[in-house]
Design a protein that fits this description.
heterohexamer; A: alpha+beta; Ribosomal Protein S5, domain 2; 5-stranded mixed β-sheet; 4 helices; B: alpha+beta; 4-stranded antiparallel β-sheet; 5 helices
């Protein structure tokens, strides 16, 4: 977590710097089928995050020695556009994005019925166009509906949220300031209905009790986010370029 | 450009396209010398210094500008620095791969860059903070998100649109923020040769069956600032000459319609 | 982690292990919630600022610390710098390859790093020589020499043990040498799920048949400093919650037995 | 094109800094079969440019997934020796040389009868030993006779020249100063007899009329250069090491 | 060899800075089977050098086009741990370690009966944990018993030593100071009994007579070191982690 | 070195070569201990600080020297810097590949470098402009253009010939240009073992059937400055000893004939 700072993350009114309550989400919007070439795609806006996801597959795994005779393997690639962050990011994977790609691949593979597609791979390309804290969870939540939009069977949708600690309080869905200057960050993703945890990471300083409180907030939030996922899937939104963004 | 790698195009389809072209018709109803209507959404990434999402048919690219302080090149101490990079993201097409840029994406970025640089889009001399020591570096980064032909023109259009709305973050250097000084508006127009027809702004299908590609970038004075012949195939001088005229005409139209000052 | 790449484990063996686990027994006689006895040899590489060879069953790793003068990061001018790198040497396992770090070794290094960084193991503010200009850079480098499961915990233990014995070479900067100030002792405890059992400190065989891995790193105050779920598979909240409790308990034991101040 | 400068590229006598008239070429010399190991080779001196070309192939394309069942593919690799330019160049390809390699590959492939050699590749290695403006065109012109020397059938020889604008005038075969400080650069390569254009690039500032004038100069120059190519091929020059260079 | 220096490498008593006589070796210890996963392994301490070696193979050569239908090929990889030298070494191979890997591979392959294992490769991983002059020879000497411990037939053990010139004298088994500030360095490795030379390098300044004297010292030293190799192999030392190092 | 990768050499040919060698004859008519007549053309690249094209039979290499201002290494503040790089260009042989240098080309460059460095060819102390801050960096770059055996000797000869004609561009630092001070002339002589014969300056065919390669570099004082045994195979001490004598003798001849001061 970020460095010490005098920044006061929770106001005297009990609200957060951006006016949210402790367990309030930022606005979330999702669409599917936003790209033409991919087998499935989605777009998510979550606070200031803007993320595009494309899914290709199942397709023959390449190189061949990567093929698993029992199942498909899932390869998520999380990437930040050079202009997505405050200081220009050099193109190409860094250590952080490689770790995120790994945990996202594993989370998705935990949900996809990979046993139906032996010897294949499923590629999930996650492009962060604008980053605003919580990109890995937003990217994963969007990936899950892009996989569904590609017609790939899943046990359940994957849906996630972060919580953390900021200004001494457990808060839901960290903002950028809370991520930078708060005390802890706890992203969790689950299978939407069973609440089985397929991604969890944490860094910072929290007690077991705080983590327990944070997980309850997250579990409850995932119900709300799952609803948005389902609406996006049901509206079968077809791209109308004139409406991107706003 | 990938040639029929997804096996979409049968020989039959190819012949059909060519026959239609001989009648002056294209699959999407356009005439051979018309440009797809671009959709341009500037400020798509508010956190960037400038940005523009551009779609050209089903091709979609996003240009983002970052402007940071840095050192000038030793041989141009009195100029800011311009760099252009294009990422042909694997999300945009089944055979695009992650990793270091291919020859194709390097050529793409360099042709876009030349149009902007030689078009004197910006006056780089206005981007000096301290001569020889501190200048503004303008990073043009373009994400290719969806690929349906003619990346050069889509990327040039996105880059120019993004530059036009960019703000130099002077406040990070204890100066004032100011609009990036954009003086000239280069427009690139790309054509491919199918049979003996010159086809403007090709989509992917058309690219796949074409032989030879020519790009001409002009500015509002009608001057040519950059040209690039690409791919296997050839052009006669008459074809080139008429490509230049076409580019001048379409450049004017696009500039007036989509890039009005 | 490699899954049965060397073809050691037959389906029969796998079922045998699971059946035994249901009786609460493991191949090496341990109970499901016990840690292999680590053997820790500090100062293995006297020429390093600090070092520790650690074996955990047949897993063996060597952590070496180098401390050198350098520049701080621009956004933390009043702090030393910490970097952690793990080399999964090809000598350690038949399928480990030389070359740039794999996703697996990057995750490993980053989880170890987070435990130490968030555990506030060192007070980085005590590692400043000249604010904004010169600070001590602490390089943690870990060689994985022999692989029999649970690298995260072996590497964390080796890194912490090595840091505890490290000396900052002040004399190279015309200062005095001084012991690296180590305040907190993070301990990571990793568990995997086999069938519906949570198994602590898995060996390679157990890793290969497991579904889901969870690591919890705590400090002596019982607080959690880092967690990481890894691999394909899932956990219920109850499993996570009990994993945290297990980590707190074992962390205390390991700290008292092997990392006494 | 280069930066503004007070350098006067065209003298009051109407001549250029190196004494040439506006449509005058620098001296050009070519030889073939200058290397022993290659299937075909050539050497060109063009002004101060010194370039060696080696051709290998047609040979089995590698890796296999690069094989085209209908034709050979042509892979030119343009490379500058570390000592070929004023400031030492780090070995290995940079973005400029990769773009040049692409356009040279395409120009050559446009001329070679690749349909005769399915599943193969033809490698053309172009090593710039000393660079003096116009290396890509000089390298391409030399490549073309090296391909011929390797016995690979071509529709016609490829021959090129640059023109450009310097000191307000359209000039042929830019010198290094004109390249650095002039107003525009226009390299063109054609099939020698039909004048079909297989390579064309341009950067700078020119009107259609100026480009037209430049192309006429180039087309006329290619006749002269083609003559030198043919003489080199006909003399079937066999290497005599004591005569290199001079 | 190192830079000129006023350091006096040979004392007035004729002894070296570390108290050794001119043809005296530093202490050497070797063990085999120190690792569990490898097919064969060894550990050597030689002066302050600490080196671990693991052998895998013969195993199928990969990629396939590396396979030799007549024999195994031997691929040694010499690597220095980041913390093994005074200034932290960036991970990964540098030019020095790549050259050493080559000469060590060749020396080992000269001794191994590779003709018995066509189409395979034998990997020898040499990890320098602490470096103290003479790492290549120490690593090679240890590799040889690791190969033997893996049950791979050899014509003979490979055993080596360095000699060199320091303070004007020919000396055996250079120390770090002698390596840095001495006049010449001459590492030699031989087949233990026949004294056939499988590795030799030299840099510095020596006359033929000095080299002859140095080779005699080395040949005699290899007898002593070969004895230690044989003892290590015969004791079939099985790892007892509580005794590493000391 | 590539061994028969182009399938040129049949077993029959190999036996023929060996039989001939037993009679003391080589394919090109040389005796076993004679060197091919080098052809050396200095100043081949006038724009470089120095250069030399060298052919040794059908092997051809071009060495170019660049000399630029830069910083000395921290541990040798009073010396210029020397670096040597060899590019085994893919033009030179069917199996040479573009890309990062192979182990073979690294060894080649390092053996050439050691001969020049240990031979004290240049007095690096004369290449200091401002101690600890500014020194001349001498870049030796060698292009291998055509490969027919014995690259080490061809490259050493080219590098030394190029250095001997090099001019330090002092005028770029507001000093005077001056001839690079070359004091010693190292010559390397390489031999391979074929059967039980030691064969000097092998061509490609000879390299392909040889077992073991030895290079000895000497200076005009007859001292040995560098040696390198390469490839699979071995030598007896007597063979090495006589190789040193051969190198001394041929080094003297080559120095007098081709590198006269």
């Amino acid at each position: 977590m970020g460095t010490a700072s005098d920044i006061k993350l929770i106001g005297d009114d009990g609200l957060r710097l951006d006016g949210r309550g402790l367990d309030e989400l930022r606005p979330i919007k999702m669409e599917i089928n936003v790209l033409n070439r991919a087998d499935g795609s989605s777009y998510i806006e979550w606070g200031g995050n803007k993320i595009m996801v494309a899914v290709y597959g199942p397709r023959e795994a390449y190189p061949k020695h990567n093929q698993d005779i029992n199942k498909a393997f899932v390869r998520a690639r999380y990437n930040m556009a050079a202009f997505s962050v405050d200081e220009r990011k050099r193109p190409g994977p860094d250590r952080r994005s490689q770790e995120i790609s790994k945990v996202l691949s594993e989370a998705l593979e935990s949900a996809i019925m990979t046993e139906l597609f032996p010897r294949t791979q499923i590629d999930v390309f996650i492009e962060v166009l604008q980053a605003d804290a919580g990109t890995r969870i937003a990217g994963l939540t969007a990936s899950s509906i892009a996989v569904a939009a590609a017609g790939i069977p899943m046990r359940d949708l994957v849906v996630g949220c972060t919580a953390g600690k900021a200004g001494g309080k457990v808060v839901l869905d960290l903002s950028k300031d809370e991520d930078n200057f708060g005390e802890a960050d706890l992203p969790i993703a689950v299978l939407a209905r069973s609440k089985k945890i397929v991604l969890m990471q944490m860094d910072g300083d929290m007690t077991l009790e705080e983590i327990d409180q944070a997980h309850s907030m997250i579990f409850s939030a995932t119900d709300r986010i799952y609803q948005i996922q389902r609406e996006a899937l049901e509206s079968k939104y077809t791209v109308d370029a004139s409406q991107w963004g706003e | 450009m990938p040639r029929d790698e997804v096996g979409i195009l049968s020989e039959i389809k190819k012949n059909y396209i060519i026959r239609k072209l001989e009648e002056g018709k294209r699959g999407d109803g356009r005439s051979v010398d018309s440009f797809r209507e671009p959709i341009i959404q500037t400020n798509y990434v508010p956190r960037a210094a400038g940005s523009a999402m551009v779609s050209l048919g089903k091709t979609r690219v996003l240009a983002g500008i970052k402007i940071e302080l840095g050192e000038p090149f030793p041989d141009t101490p009195n100029q800011g620095v311009l760099t252009t990079n294009v990422e042909m993201l694997p999300m945009a097409f089944p055979t695009f791969e992650a990793g270091p840029p291919s020859e194709i994406s390097i050529e793409l970025a360099r042709v876009v860059d030349r149009g902007i640089r030689e078009g004197k889009t910006m006056d780089l001399q206005k981007l000096v903070v301290e001569p020889g020591k501190k200048v503004w570096i303008v990073f043009i980064d373009i994400d290719v998100l969806d690929y349906d032909g003619n990346l050069i023109d889509a990327c040039t259009l996105a880059a120019v649109s993004a530059l036009r709305t960019s703000v130099v973050p002077g406040s990070t250097a204890e100066l004032k923020d100011f609009a990036l000084p954009v003086d000239n508006i280069p427009v690139s127009v790309t054509m491919v040769k199918i049979g003996d027809k010159m086809v403007v702004d090709p989509n992917l299908e058309e690219e796949q069956i074409s032989s030879g590609r020519i790009t001409v970038t002009t500015t509002q004075d009608g001057h040519v600032r950059a040209m690039q012949k690409g791919n296997i195939g050839y052009f006669t001088w008459d074809e080139i000459s008429s490509a230049i005229t076409t580019s001048q005409r379409l450049g004017k139209e696009i500039r007036e319609k989509y890039l009005k000052v």
